[in-house]
């Protein structure tokens, strides 16, 4: 899980930040990104892609990462910006902001996915990086736990959509709630969803 970090160290970089985001797919809620810088040659066999971990494990590792990392940055881009920019650009903006939130400036970035972010810092996109890089995996955990906590708050405001369970993703239950109640302020108006009869539901503003 630290091969990419070792390569960067060999190239002379010292402060390597893994960067990832969560929340590109949901119908509601923000996209959240995180950036994590670990000490040189840091290892932790429990850190993995957040999607492969239980919620309880993520919560535990969230605390460990915040305690043991040199720096952790996190950023939230809300639905209004997602609708204005589109989800890819919003996700890249969130990752850029997460890097800028770090208390120490990294000299190299490992970024999950195909795309670079708009910073002059040397960087390498890594496809499926959250399963290949410990720094990116840690960022995915920070972002996932942070977003889940945000969606828990929204669940208390809008319990009819059961955001606590679906986290804003387009489950059958969520789509049925949209049919029944319409959308709320955190739904992405630029997104479309198939209803239970497989016809397109238009989000009416």
Give a verbal description of the structure.
It is a single chain. With 205 residues, the chain is α/β, with parallel strands linked by helices. It has two domains: 3-154, Ribonuclease H-like superfamily/Ribonuclease H (Nucleotidyltransferase, domain 5, 2-Layer Sandwich), CATH 3.30.420; 158-201, no CATH class. It has seven helices and seven strands; from the N terminus they run αββαβααββαααββ. It has helices at residues 3-10, 55-68, 79-85, 87-100, 134-157, 163-166, 172-181; strands at 16-22, 31-37, 71-77, 108-112, 123-126, 193-194, 200-201. Helix 3 crosses helix 4 (87-100). It is globular, with a radius of gyration of 18 Å.
Quick structural summary:
The protein is built from seven helices and seven strands. With 205 residues, the protein is of the alpha/beta class.
User: Architecture of the largest domain, according to CATH?
Assistant: 2-Layer Sandwich
Strand order of the largest sheet: 3-2-1-4-5
**Structural class, judged by helices and strands?**
alpha/beta
Q: How much helix is in the residues?
A: 25-40%
| Number of separate helices | 7
Residue windows where pLDDT falls under 50 for at least 5 positions: none
What oligomeric state do the depicted chains represent? single chain
Most strands sheet: 5 strands, mixed
The radius of gyration over CA amounts to: 18 Å
Number of strands: 7
* Ends distance: 45 Å
Outline type = globular
Tell me the series of helices and strands, N- to C-terminal.
HEEHEHHEEHHHEE
């Amino acid at each position: 899980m630290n091969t990419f970090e070792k390569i960067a160290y060999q190239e002379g970089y010292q402060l390597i930040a893994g960067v990832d985001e969560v929340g590109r797919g949901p119908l509601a809620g923000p996209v959240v990104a995180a950036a994590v810088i670990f000490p040189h040659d840091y290892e932790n066999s429990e850190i993995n892609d957040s999607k492969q971990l239980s919620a309880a494990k993520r919560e535990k590792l969230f605390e460990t990462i915040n305690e043991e990392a040199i720096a952790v940055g996190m950023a939230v881009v809300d639905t209004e910006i997602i609708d204005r920019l589109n989800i890819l650009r919003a996700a890249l903006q969130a990752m850029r902001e997460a890097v800028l939130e770090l208390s120490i400036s990294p000299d190299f970035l490992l970024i999950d996915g195909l795309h670079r972010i708009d910073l002059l810092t040397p960087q390498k996109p890594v496809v499926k990086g959250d399963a290949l890089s410990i720094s990116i995996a840690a960022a995915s955990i920070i972002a996932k736990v942070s977003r889940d906590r945000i969606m828990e708050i929204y669940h208390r405001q809008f319990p009819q959509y059961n955001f606590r369970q679906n986290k804003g993703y387009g489950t059958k239950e969520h789509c049925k709630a949209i049919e029944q109640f319409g959308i709320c302020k955190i739904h992405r108006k630029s997104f479309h969803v198939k209803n239970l009869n497989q016809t397109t539901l238009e989000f009416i503003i």
